[in-house]
Amino acid sequence: MKTVLLLVVTLQLALTAPRKIPYVPDVVFPPVPEDARLSSHQMQLLLDTNPDPEVQPGLFQGDMALTSEMYDFWRVGLRWDVMPERKWTNNTVPYVISPLYDTSDYVTIYNAILTINMLTCVKFVPWDGKAKDFLLIWPVKYPQGCWSYVGRFGGPQIVSLQPPDTKGPNCLGGEGRTIHELLHALGIFHEQSRADRDQYIDVKFENIIPEYRNNFNKQSLENTTYNFQYDYDSIMHYGQYFFSKARDQPTIIPKKQNVRLGQRKALSKTDCLKINDLYGCLNKSVYHNRKYRILCDSLGY
Ligand SMILES: [Zn+2]
Questions:
Q1: Potential cystine with 284: which of 116, 146, 288, 295 (Cβ 3.0-4.6 Å)?
Q2: Is the residue at 14 inside a domain?
Q3: Does 19 map to a domain?
Q4: Any binding-site annotation on 180?
């Protein structure tokens, strides 16, 4: 099975390679809202205490590139009524996977794409060389780590996935972190930003590096809606120690017992439903509603 997949991937690489992929510089400058900009001292403090590749200095909530305008209007999923241009047209997301990845990393990214394609009516398709808006899944050198823009940004749009190195798997130890970043690219934010989150978790502000306390802000109900129960299992939920001052001081404590936060293994049932809801897959017809609910229900988390 793996050999067949490798063959398919190699063939696809060969077929897509000659197209004119845009040049991607080593250093890129994703947009960051005013109050997420940091000094180099603040950045170093974060790097010293947080080894997680999603907790990158200088990006909004660690791993999102977004403008001040988007920051003003966001919710757990972007508001299409406020920013219709951020939604991918026809539920189709053209992508290019960088030829700089080795084959096993390519397969990891490709598996993440296949998973979303199978479970939702959103379709990631190889870029045809013509579509104006598409994802460039790329191991950019700076800012390193796993990060993404939120929603469709217009033009070639980077999803940064740092490959494994001597220190560990970074973003590509499994398909989970790729899925997390692809969900940002579809317009989905972190679960613990929900306005009602205080019913489900305690945020320990005293344990958060002060400059990063904003990352734990809630969103007002005026510009947010939640169609699903709070989801501790979400692949979009922070881990218990994200942005902590020290590795033994949790920043989030769940109110419910025996739950674990911050899984990056797979989509949860609710994540799956959330994508299908955001992209209208559940209202297409009774058949589609049933199909995607059954598919999402089959997931482990
Ligand atoms: Zn994230």
A1: 288
A2: no
A3: no
A4: yes
Active site residue 69: no
Long-range contacts of 288-293 (CB under 8 A, 24+ apart): 288/121, 292/119, 292/120, 292/121
Q: Which of 14-18, 50-54, 225-229 is the most confident on average?
A: 225-229
Rounded to the nearest angstrom, the distance between the alpha carbon of 131 and the centre of ligand 1 is: 26
Number of domains in the chain: 1
Ligand 1 center from residue 288 Cα (angstroms): 28
DSSP state of 87: S
User: Is 241 contained in some domain?
Assistant: yes
Tokens of 153: 């940004």
Q: What separation in angstroms does the CA of 278 have from each of 151, 210, 281?
A: 11, 33, 8
- 179 lies in a domain? yes
CB atoms within 10 A of CB 237: 29
Determine the distance separating the centroid of ligand 1 and the alpha carbon of 170, expressed in angstroms: 14
- What's the pLDDT tens digit per position in 249-274? 999 999 999 999 999 999 999 999 99
Catalytic residue, chosen from 181, 191, 211, 222, is: 181
CATH of the domain at 116: 3.40.390.10
In whole angstroms, what is the distance from residue 54 CA to residue 47 CA?
A: 11
Q: Confidence band (pLDDT; 50, 70, 90) for 74?
A: very low
Q: Which of the four pLDDT bands, split at 50, 70 and 90, describes residue 25?
A: confident
pLDDT value of position 73: 46
pLDDT over 90 at 103, yes or no:
yes
Rounded mean pLDDT of 106-122?
Answer: 97
Domain that holds residue 283: 34-299
